[in-house]
Amino acid sequence: MYVLGYDIGSSSVKAALVEIETGKTVASDFYPKVEMPMYAERAGWAEQDPEMWWTNLKLANASVLRQSN
Q1: Average pLDDT over residues 59-64
Q2: Side-chain half-sphere of 50: how many Cα atoms within 13 Å?
Q3: CB 6 within 8 A of CB 14
Q4: What is the DSSP string of the chain?
Q5: 31 contacts 59 by C-beta, under 8 angstroms
Q6: Whole-angstrom Cα distance, residue 45 to residue 30?
Q7: Distance in angstroms (rounded) separating the CA atoms of residues 63 and 26
Q8: pLDDT given at position 29
Q9: How many CB atoms lie within 10 A of CB 23?
Q10: Contacts of the segment 34-39: beta carbons below 8 A, 24+ positions apart
Q11: Tell me, what's the pLDDT at 16?
């Protein structure tokens, strides 16, 4: 059995496929390959477009599935 985990951070979206029994990482990847932009209208504010997270999650997921067949 496997688990697929995601880390949606401010710089990138990471995905990892892990075999539960052994704890071994079968495949992992992150997107985008450069830091995602952040918008700050005022000091102390930070915003990102959630659509960008979704797009990069799909790319990372597809890569992990390709790597693991």
Answers
A1: 98
A2: 0
A3: yes
A4: -EEEEEEE-SS-EEEEEEETTT--EEEEEEE-SSPPP-B-SSTT--B--HHHHHHHHHHHHHHHHHHH-
A5: yes
A6: 25
A7: 12
A8: 98
A9: 7
A10: 35/11, 36/10, 36/11, 36/12, 38/10
A11: 98
Q: What is the dihedral of CA 38, 51, 63, 61, to 10 degrees?
A: 110
> In 10 A of CB 47, how many CB atoms?
10
Q: In one letter, which amino acid is 40?
A: A
User: What's the first-to-final CA gap in the chain, in angstroms?
Assistant: 15
Query: How far, in Å, CA of 27 to CA of 14, rounded?
Result: 11
> In the structure, what pLDDT confidence band is assigned to residue 24 with cuts at 50, 70 and 90?
very high
How does pLDDT run across 34-54, given as a tens digit for each residue?
999 999 999 999 999 999 999
